[in-house]
């Protein structure tokens, strides 16, 4: 458990991460990764707390992974965004003063943006009725936030169920809808660095881009400015709907979005089986020069690795350097690393986010 949060400790931890990534990539490249630092505090745009009740009072609580029974009671969370820290005492004071808001409240979730928007979700072990909604509406207005109440079988939305983020890539601002419950990058500053690195690594192309695991279009939007057109896939309905809204909000018309898993797309491109969701997509019209992947921690499965092998360039963002190295090993007989980077998405943890550009030789 980390107890030293000094600038020196942060730099040492970052150096250790670079060493580890170097060791994993050394069998494939002599290149040193470009390192992108994070702010040491107030970098996390999402936070989730249990609510711990003691007598008449209740507290924000978190737990040590090694001890799930002893709560760590909090008033502030220095790694969370400044907006989360501003909202924490005001929200707590509101539920402490309202039996309707506090009764059987067990969890609070915050979602904020670099652009200053906030969404709070309150989770309950009881049904929520009109009295709760009236109290929640007053609270949302007072705090200037969107507010959601959740209980079993219920989801009550006060105001809006998403936040809107603004991120700058190569001097252009992109707008992103980020819904409650959908995946978003937790470290906004480093996310913006990742987007700019991927934009630079892709370069100006005169062919097309295939993107797997596109989420809400986080990378899709800026990368679409570098190619003729994009075919992007995502399996989550929530993320697909957010991505569609983001295409419209940014006036981007060269992206075709399809709700397919990476495995299903592999089957479609290999002619194994047809998919109705591809009925209006002319796959033969694409001239793919690059495939972009940002897979889950498990990395790409064997079949997806074989699919991406056919592309001249593979732009790969990874949240797990071990599975990244395993995937590179599978591709090493056809592709070599020409660029690599370390993104410190998760300061004060051992987690490493990495990026590599692999090009066919």
From TrEMBL:
Keyword tRNA processing attributed: yes
EC identifiers of the protein: 2.1.1.35
Broad enzyme group: transferase
PROSITE patterns in the record: SAM_MT_RNA_M5U, TRMA_1, TRMA_2
Catalytic residues identified in the record: 319, 319 (nucleophile), 353 (proton acceptor)
Keyword presence, tRNA processing: yes
Pfam families registered for this protein in UniProt: tRNA_U5-meth_tr (PF05958)
Amino acids binding S-adenosyl-L-methionine: 185, 213, 218, 234, 294
Ranges annotated as spanning the membrane: none
GO biological-process terms attached to the record: methylation
GO terms for MF: tRNA (uracil(54)-C5)-methyltransferase activity, S-adenosyl methionine-dependent
Stored InterPro entries: MeTrfase_TrmA_AS (IPR030390), MeTrfase_TrmA_CS (IPR030391), SAM-dependent_MTases_sf (IPR029063), TrmA_MeTrfase (IPR011869), U5_MeTrfase_fam (IPR010280)
Reactions performed catalytically: uridine(54) in tRNA + S-adenosyl-L-methionine = 5-methyluridine(54) in tRNA + S-adenosyl-L-homocysteine + H(+); uridine(341) in tmRNA + S-adenosyl-L-methionine = 5-methyluridine(341) in tmRNA + S-adenosyl-L-homocysteine + H(+)
UniProt keyword terms in alphabetical order: Methyltransferase, S-adenosyl-L-methionine, Transferase, tRNA processing
Function statement: Dual-specificity methyltransferase that catalyzes the formation of 5-methyluridine at position 54 (m5U54) in all tRNAs, and that of position 341 (m5U341) in tmRNA (transfer-mRNA).
Family according to the record: Belongs to the class I-like SAM-binding methyltransferase superfamily. RNA M5U methyltransferase family. TrmA subfamily.
PANTHER family noted in UniProt: TRNA/TMRNA (URACIL-C(5))-METHYLTRANSFERASE, TRNA_TMRNA (URACIL-C(5))-METHYLTRANSFERASE
Protein's name in the database: tRNA/tmRNA (uracil-C(5))-methyltransferase
Organism for this UniProt entry: Thiopseudomonas acetoxidans
Lineage: Bacteria, Pseudomonadati, Pseudomonadota, Gammaproteobacteria, Pseudomonadales
Gene behind this protein: trmA
